[in-house]
Amino acid sequence: MRHLTPLRYVEEVARAGSIRRAADTLAITASALNRRILSLEDELGVPIFERLPRGVRLNTAGEILLHHIRNQVSDMARVRSQIADLSGVRRGHVSIACAQAVMPYFLPRQIESYRTEHAAVTFNVLVRDREAAERALADYSADIALVFEPSRSAEFQTVMTIRQPIHCVMAKDHPLAAHEIVRLGECLNHPLALPAAPDGLRFLLQSVASAAGAHLVPAVESDSYEFLLNCAAAGDMISFQIPIGIPDGRERLDLASRPVDSRDIPPSLLHMGQLKGRVLPIAAARFADRLSGVFAAEFDSG
Q1: Are 22 and 36 in contact (CB under 8 A)?
Q2: C-beta separation of 137 from 275 below 8 A
Q3: What DSSP letter does each residue of 143-193 carry, written as one string?
Q4: Which of 102, 263, 104, 236 is nearest to 169 (CA)?
């Protein structure tokens, strides 16, 4: 909508921290963008940016305005999706901030299933740790977050929690694959392929090992879970993952996974949440409902 254009200009300048950089993104001249900002400040009767030697930043009035902008844009997206639903064609966009474990297998299946029914809905999926995911909810760049142990800020509203026991992942013919449940000490007797610190799973493993007087000495570290699974499949290395991030037997015939004894590592909690007080657009709200149903059917949820 045209009336939202000046508001989007403010949001982009705030994001870029510079009128010139924002102008490049918006494909207008810096002088024209500056005039738009000055005109809006004149209309409001107060400045909304502090002018700094190397850019600009929002002042308190600007923060209040930016919050209003994000509410306006979100409300308009919700109205558009409601109008589209009247015609029987669901449209809209769903943005998800999530832990890396959720991305490779679980989310692609859920998105494909949803788009089979609603092909006009588009998606954006961002890998974010818990703090970054909460920031994404707060600045409306994400509708839904799927993260481990959120910091429980006042703005994070947990919709559902899903218990995820820690699994040891290995090659199909690895000696530990013959066990139904493995002990952490058995895993530590083999070369380890571990997430790079400060990944949440790595932090949990490190804490548990330290409490038991053991040390984690990885043979391989990476910030890619997919790479770590491939390392495990290629030889005698052990990696760790949660069920939602483990491919099933049809997807990876070369891998096996076994739960680690809960006496050694307690299950983690995956949280699905949204910004507190925000009414999601229909496409995002319905997708969140779908995820809730899948979690309830396939996992131990709360």
Answers
A1: no
A2: yes
A3: SEEEEES----TTEEEEEEEEE--EEEEETT-GGGG-SSB-HHHHTTS-BE
A4: 236
CA distances from 206 to 40, 127, 215, 218 (A): 52, 22, 8, 11
Task: For the full predicted model, state whether its pTM sits above 0.90.
Answer: no
Phi then psi for 268, rounded to 5 degrees?
-90, 165
> Could you tell me where the DSSP H helices lie in the chain?
5-16, 19-26, 30-44, 60-86, 106-117, 130-138, 184-187, 200-211, 225-234, 282-298
Domains of the chain plus CATH, in order, are 2-65 (1.10.10.10), 90-163+269-301 (3.40.190.10), 168-265 (3.40.190.290)
Please choose, from the candidates 105, 110, 116, 107, the residue with its C-alpha nearest in 3D space to the C-alpha of residue 250: 105
Quote the CA–CA distance of 273 and 283 in Å, as a whole number: 16
Summarize pLDDT for 116-159 with one digit per residue, the tens: 999 989 999 999 888 888 889 988 889 999 988 766 667 889 99
- DSSP 8-state class, residue 268: E
CB 264 within 8 A of CB 207: no
**Angle formed at CA 165 by CA 162 and CA 166, multiple of 5 degrees:** 130
Q: Counting beta carbons within 10 angstroms of the beta carbon of residue 286, is it exposed (0 to 12), middle (13 to 18) or buried (19 or more)?
A: buried
